[in-house]
Amino acid sequence: MELLNYVGFWGEFLEFKKVLCNGNIASITGTTEANKEKNRYPFILPYDHSRVRLSVLNQDPVSDYINANFVPGGGSERDFICTQGPLQNTLPDFWRMVWEQNVRIIVMVTSLKQKHTVRPSIKTQHSTDKT
Known about the structure:
This is protein-tyrosine-phosphatase. The protein is an alpha+beta fold. It contains 3 helices and 5 strands.
């Protein structure tokens, strides 16, 4: 049953992606060798025209990449940021994005486990959340 739901969801995702962008929106930056390891999934990439760009560190041109996009919400084209859950190697980039973009609220829309693996935590030591 779970496999059928996954296949159904995957099919809907691909159909939605096809209808939404008609296959014409570039997602090239996320496919470069230097950035591939920063993507949780190789088939879910940020669109180049609206991706969040981090400040460049130590003159390293690929240090500006995070798999995240600005999303309109009614006020502007940059009301929200959608991103993948950070990987262990992208946690510093995630927090740098939060800081640089002055993010005030983070909403996590996923489970804390993926199959039998616990996802990396984005909580800080200063968190008061007991869950």
